[in-house]
Amino acid sequence: MKLHCELTDLKGKRYRPGDDVPWVYIYPFFLVHMLGFGGMTFYTAYAGDGSNAMVGLAIALITAPIYLIFYRAIFGRDEVRWIFINSALGILGIAAEVRWLLSLAGKQLDDYPAIAHVGPFMFYVMYTFLLRHAALDLADARGNAELKTKVERHYVLISVLVYCGTLLIRWVL
User: Fold this and answer.
1) How far apart are CA 170 and CA 38, in angstroms?
2) Which of 170, 35, 160 is closest to 88 using CA atoms?
3) CA 132 to CA 138: how far, in whole Å?
4) Cα–Cα distance, 155 to 131 (Å, whole number)
5) CA 37 to CA 30: how far, in whole Å?
6) Single pTM value for the model
7) Per-residue pLDDT tens digits for 136-147
8) Rounded Cα gap, residues 92 and 96, in angstroms
């Protein structure tokens, strides 16, 4: 992955803009870190009756801009446009996967105020953004425009299939 900012790894090695950075330094940290904060927003939004939704929203509104700064610095401005594509996928994902997860506890999206869904939605979108980048790097598609397009199409297709499958499971069960 080509870096768009200056970065020093845990061993003190310095990377400059344009340097190739091993993905192993980026994804494990952010995926685990975001899973923690995203999990907190999900929990505060849906663990009770939704009365803690403002706590989840506060967590999301404080941390999301920080993640966006890192995303732009690491991945570049043009890549951050995928956040909008992931937002559309996120709406479908929220509708599918959150409904399904809540149904396991005997609850529904409508049981919570609309504001409760903002934090989990934001983290869902940012998490899927990282998953797309991980897919590109695992396929070694960054330097190959044709392969990159193929991986991105598969990413969108697989996402839509998973979400639609989750919706179908919810409606069938």
Assistant:
1) 23
2) 160
3) 10
4) 9
5) 10
6) 0.61
7) 988 999 889 999
8) 6
66 inside domain: yes
Q: Is residue 116 part of a domain?
A: yes
Which residue range is the domain that position 142 belongs to? 23-172
162 located within any domain: yes
Looking at residue 21, its amino acid is V
Domain count, the chain: 1
DSSP characters for 60-122?
Answer: HHHHHHHHHHHHHHHH-HHHHTHHHHHHHHHHHHIIIIIHHHHHHTT--GGGS-GGGGHHHHH
pLDDT of residue 151: 95
Distance CA 148, CA 12 (A): 31
- The average pLDDT across 54-58 equals 85
**Is 88 inside any structural domain?**
yes
Q: Report the DSSP beta bridge partners of residue 75.
A: none
Give 17's DSSP letter: T
Q: Are 143 and 149 in contact (CB under 8 A)?
A: no
Between the CA of residue 170 and those of 103, 104, 106, what are the distances in Å?
A: 8, 10, 12
What type of residue is 161?
L
| Rounded Cα gap, residues 127 and 118, in angstroms | 14
